[in-house]
Design a protein that fits this description.
56 residues; elongated; 32% helix
């Protein structure tokens, strides 16, 4: 019996254990910007730069 393929719209990404490749890369960039600092060490003016995702 042939196995049916799932369409991307049928996959619940909120329950996925793996992220897509572009998202993983952006998370790594944010992690590098934070540089293992504690939340209280981050300046409020840095937040928009830290959370800027997908540099368009």
């Amino acid at each position: 019996m042939k196995q049916e393929k799932k369409f991307i719209s049928e996959i619940d990404l909120n329950k996925s254990s793996k992220a897509c490749s572009p998202c993983i890369m952006e998370c790594k960039k944010i992690d590098q910007r934070i540089n293992k600092r504690k939340l209280e060490e981050i300046e409020p003016k840095e937040v928009p730069h830290l959370l800027k995702v997908f540099d368009f």
